Amino acid sequence: MNQQRPLNLFSSVVLTLAVVTTFTLLIQTLMTSFVTAAFPASNIYIAGGGSSLSEGVHKSLSQQFSINHFKNNIELTYNPVGSGTGVTNLLPFTSNPFDYAGSEVIPSNNQYNQVPGLQVIPFIGVNVLVVYNLPELSSSERLILDRKLLVDIFSGRISNWNDPSIAALNPSIASKLPNQPIKRVVRSDSSGTTELFTSALTAFAAASNGATTWYLGTVPLPSAWPNETPINISKQKGSSSLGNYVLLNPYTIGYNTPDAIIEQTSALIINAAGKAVAATEETCKSAMSDFKDAFDSRFTANIVNAPGENSYPIAGYSYLIYKSKSMEECNAAKVLYRYFMFLYSSDAENVIISSTFVPLPSDLQSRIRNEYLSKWICSSSESVVTTDSDLVAPILLAVFGGFIALTSLGIVAYIGINSYVKKRKALGEPISEE
Fold it and tell me: Where, by residue number, does the polypeptide cross the bilayer (predicted)?
């Protein structure tokens, strides 16, 4: 007589758990598929570059974004080839194409015409500092210069440190001003820093004597000093080289950005309101506020020589430039859109400040998000606008679906096992719980 094998409840439970585990893995696979379909960010390469002035903050922000948002799914690069080259690399048929550029140089009309929807938006505020090396002064004694003095010094009209015009603005240190020639230090390469500085000198010259040019300046403004630069000017390539040269050579004066300043003293500048101000986050924001309604039709603004009492007079914007209608890779455009949205967030502000640059005022950031980034499309006219909800929705759908499926499976398993046990008991068959 054949004996029925006793039902082993433990084996049944193990079998049920195996089925549940398999089903869970299936749900996870489906969840990944949903997310990828909603926002396919894998293996996307975003190439940016341009401004060397803002290189550090661009690289810090791209790294932060990659870690916080997509980990290793995308690659964001920034190549500091200079503002002018950055814009050129957005144009058709370039050998080193960029998806976006950082720049203090505004595209020309011809460049705008070559790229449908080429868009410029302010990115960060930048102060250009006047740095100097006067060994006779202590660390607590700070040089004060006004706007006309800066024009005269960099034009060569004032050539000695003990010039009466400098002494008159600095009575407390006038006796220490040396009878030494002023050695001017400028950038040899084309740079956004030079463009901002020469823009300020041109504005100062116009304000002081009605001129539209100054000795080394022209209109349109140069981003590099002319080859015929006179003697007593040293040309240095890059902000670090300029900073080091001033640091190591007495009686020099130059210009630089805060991120490149190492153990150097910068001058207080008397602004248009007659107040001596330092280059700080607050004085740069004041200059931005003074010109908040000065943006032109292409969303650029010149904020040098701001009229506010607390405004630093050599301030400007570093811009982002992108293709708002003509990026061919829509998935890349969606990632770049998300990156730009991150750049105008509170998380990015902390990185910008730690990099010694200045975040935009909140109302300007809102305007950029709502009036410009929200209208971004790729070349197929598909909107690139994506939000966190585009990621959350499919995840929630998959999780909810998985919950329903697992619950249903559990109920079915319970009913099946319970029915089987009852049937065995009704037939008087043994049941094992081992």
Answer: 7-27, 391-417
